[in-house]
Specification:
Blueprint lengths: L22 E3 L4 E3 L1 H8 L8 E3 L22 E3 L4 E3 L1 H6 L7 E3 H57 L6 H47 L4 H5 L5 H4 L7 E3 L3 E2 L8 H5 L1 E2 L3 E3 L9 E4 L2 E4 L17 E12 L9 E6 L4 E6 L3 E6 L4 E6 L8 E4 L5 E5 L4 E6 L2 E7 L3 E8 L5 E7 L5 E7 L2 E6 L17 E4 L5 E5 L4 E5 L5 E5 L12 E6 L5 E5 L4 E5 L5 E5 L7 E6 L4 E6 L4 E8 L1
Antiparallel strand pairs: 1-2, 1-3, 4-5, 4-6, 7-10, 8-9, 11-12, 13-36, 14-15, 15-16, 16-17, 18-19, 19-20, 20-21, 22-23, 23-24, 24-25, 26-27, 27-28, 28-29, 30-31, 31-32, 32-33, 34-35, 35-36
């Protein structure tokens, strides 16, 4: 049938089909002619209320009493939070309880529904529609900026002749990868906004249905969701990359072609209730209005509910008076290890010892890390040095004065990050080195307070995918995370569900999803948090014993150095 062109039938009696019935039963919801009223009322198996047709819908559909069926309830007991009938009233069970007319509850709920409906229609939906309308312009802007970068790149490339064409393509691929990140971020935000619009549309339909309903139970159960929708998701901020040409040097063609700054997409769309940031010296909960995938790394990888041990590698560390502190991946098949003696050892996944290197000073290394080119660096607390192992040779890169090095890591740019303590043990800082040149010192927050505790335990550290610097501060019972510029982002002191439990982070690493993993040695478990400090889950109940050093390989498999057993266990913790 074609509804717009179909004649609408007149209202008829539901019993005999007499046209234009003057009456209706407001409880049974059927139309009645005069002749059929008596027939309908003769059915005494249920209640009836026959009213003139123009007054249909005026009868309140009171709920049935659960205790005294089939009596209806016209009063609500606020103390017991249940509807009650006359028999409940006379039983004395509610004598000293405050009661309210059910019609009053119905009226107030409908007023709230009407208010929410109007807010959704006039304020909230238009706000999301406006945000959605701006997405195409943002996408167009990405391409325009990419074209500007490409133009600058090609202009510089013309001066380098044919021999650097392959390097130009390499840089171009970097631009395209950042474009994909940017577009993916925008698309994800578009999905969040459209999803919320869809939810709002459904809520509006539901509220309109509630306004048309006289079902007290259904209306009484209504709970407003408008607070969820009042604020737009915070818009992510983008630091667009720039191209910086350099003078041509044929021996360093790739570096002198120019550098692209990293695209930085700062996104406050996080799941409600979990992030803690330090603001004006105090911890503050930072909820978000809408849960967004951008609160997570831009990937579809999911954490596994049941992590699996893939390899169990027995090293020569562990046992009586010996411990295994650190593990660092040379490749997906080889790992460097160190403990509390002077020997650093390279193993394969079969547990075969491939190489042993003794420190120059004869003291145990405080920390080890693998450089981007495959070299091994280590810190020596005794002689204040940071050293590079290449083959069988050891080169001292840096010797400190007044400070002693402890933890270290290699960054994505090739820099070294080192945690160090002053000789008197009262100060701790993180220093960034390029080669042997000090580039950055991170020690104080914006209020001039120390970022890190002054305890003498090693503070291991790792650089995250978003360039944050993550330090496991055992003495403070916290993971301290600062931006690449050294600004405090948050302190993680354990999951919100266990606020009073002690927390002693030791080893720390990050993965391709920008998640942070830190070992809680004494509790035999590993905490996984996201890049904004949101607790995701524990890795435990999988046979770990006093986990200490951590690292991940290129496939996001986790290597865990067990402090006392001398074992390195390889875990798969993603699905």
């Amino acid at each position: 049938m074609d509804p717009p062109n179909t004649a609408q039938d007149i209202v008829r009696c539901d019993l005999c089909e007499t046209p234009v019935p003057p009456m209706c039963c407001d409880i049974c919801h059927i139309n009645l002619c005069i002749a059929c009223v008596g027939i309908h009322l003769s059915d005494d198996s249920k209640d009836h209320k026959v009213v003139p047709f123009h007054k249909r819908g005026s009868t309140i559909n009171y709920p049935k009493c659960q205790k005294h069926p089939p009596k209806t309830c016209e009063v609500h007991c606020k103390h017991c939070n249940i509807p009650i009938c006359a028999s409940c009233f006379s039983s004395g069970d509610h004598d000293h309880h405050k009661k309210i007319d059910i019609v009053e509850i119905l009226t107030k709920k409908k007023e709230l529904i009407e208010k929410d409906l109007q807010e959704l229609k006039k304020l909230i939906r238009p706000k999301f529609q406006q945000a959605a309308s701006e997405i195409p312009a943002q996408k167009a802007g990405v391409k325009q900026h990419s074209l500007k970068l490409t133009t600058a790149l090609n202009k510089q490339g013309e001066a380098l002749h044919k021999e650097i064409n392959s390097l130009i393509q390499r840089k171009q691929s970097e631009i395209e990868e950042m474009d994909e990140q940017h577009l993916a971020a925008i698309t994800t935000q578009e999905d969040v906004i459209n999803k919320t619009l869809h939810e709002i549309k459904q809520v509006i339909l539901d509220l309109q249905n509630l306004l048309d309903s006289d079902d007290v139970c259904l209306v009484s159960e209504y709970t407003s969701r408008n607070e969820e929708f009042r604020s737009l998701p915070a818009q992510f901020q983008v630091t667009l990359p720039t191209f910086s040409p350099q003078e041509i040097n044929r021996e360093q063609l790739y570096q002198q072609l120019g550098s692209l700054s990293q695209i930085v997409i700062t996104n406050p769309l996080i799941d409600e209730g979990a992030r803690t940031t330090e603001e004006n010296g105090g911890l503050k909960k930072t909820p978000a209005a809408v849960s967004s995938p951008l609160a997570r790394p831009l990937s579809d990888k999911l954490l596994s509910d049941t992590p699996r041990i893939l390899n169990d590698i027995q090293t020569e560390f562990g046992g009586y008076n010996n411990v295994l502190n650190k593990v660092s991946c040379l490749s997906d098949e080889e790992i460097w290890t160190s403990g509390n003696n002077k020997i650093m050892k390279l193993y394969n996944l079969k547990g075969e010892l491939l190489k042993s290197i003794q420190t120059k000073s004869g003291d145990a290394p405080r920390d080890i890390a693998v450089t981007r080119s495959g070299g091994l660096v280590y810190t020596d607390y005794r002689d204040r040095s940071i050293n590079l192992v290449s083959g069988t040779q050891i080169q001292t890169l840096i010797t400190l004065r007044g400070w002693r090095p402890r933890g270290l890591c290699c960054t994505s740019s090739g820099d070294l990050l080192v945690t160090m303590t002053s000789d008197d043990g009262k100060q701790t800082k993180v220093v960034r080195y390029s080669g042997s040149t000090e580039k950055q010192t991170i020690q104080w927050d914006d209020q001039g307070k120390p970022l890190y505790s002054s305890g003498m335990y090693i503070k291991y550290l790792s650089e995250n995918r978003n360039l944050d610097i993550c330090v496991a501060d055992w003495d403070a019972g916290a993971v301290v995370v600062v931006s690449a510029a050294g600004k405090l982002r948050f302190r993680y002191t354990g999951p919100p569900s266990t606020p009073r439990e002690s927390f002693g982070p030791r080893g720390i690493t990050t993965d391709s999803q920008a998640n942070i993993l830190t070992s809680d040695c004494d509790k035999h478990r590993i905490h996984i948090i996201d890049q904004d400090g949101l607790f995701l889950r524990f890795l435990h109940n999988c046979g770990l014993q006093r986990p200490c050093g951590l690292c991940v390989d290129s496939k996001d498999n986790l290597f865990v150095a067990e402090k006392n057993t001398g074992k390195v266990k390889k875990l798969q913790y993603y699905q």
